[in-house]
Amino acid sequence: xxxxxxxxxxxxxxxxxxxxxxxxxxxxxxxxxxxxxxxxxxxxxxxxxxxxxxxxxxxxxxxxxxxxxxxxxxxxxxxxxxxxxxxxxxxxxxxxxxxxxxxxxxxxxxxxxxxxxxxxxxxxxxxxxxxxxxxxxxxxxxxxxxxxxxxxxxxxxxxxxxxxxxxxxxxxxxxxxxxxxxxxxxx
Length: 187
Known about the structure:
Layout: H1 8-12, H2 16-22, H3 26-40, E1 47-50, E2 64-68, H4 71-81, E3 85-88, E4 101-107, H5 116-126, E5 127-136, H6 146-150, H7 159-167, H8 182-186
Parallel strand pairs: 1-2, 1-4, 2-3, 4-5
């Protein structure tokens, strides 16, 4: 693998100061709060967080299974989190039985995946009938820029595009809601 193709994510979490900063960024905290509110409104039961990385959306619960492609990231998260279950898994090939989870959370992950549609199919498969998917993603294709390339984003989504992707993947209802930080108000 060339230096340009190397997974930059694993370089970042090797630095404890980066992780501390990342977990206190305004946009991360805003997203975590919004996702947390959605999770609280749902029934109690097993939750899957796909692509949790080092900064999961759901914390402090034994009901959460964190899945992540990076073994090193999960090892770090397990040491920091101490609660939940930790599974190395590819979002496009989830190793869980059908209908195993009441809720699935996928935050800022789909834009990194070559097989985003396949990942949505897998999330629908492992979610019980009537369960809920909470997904966040970078919005507006026209804002795709250098920082997207730097963190290996393959795409950004439009709201109507994501709504169509969800409707085409066995999700019976979908509701998209936009949330963002202070910088949004400046544009």
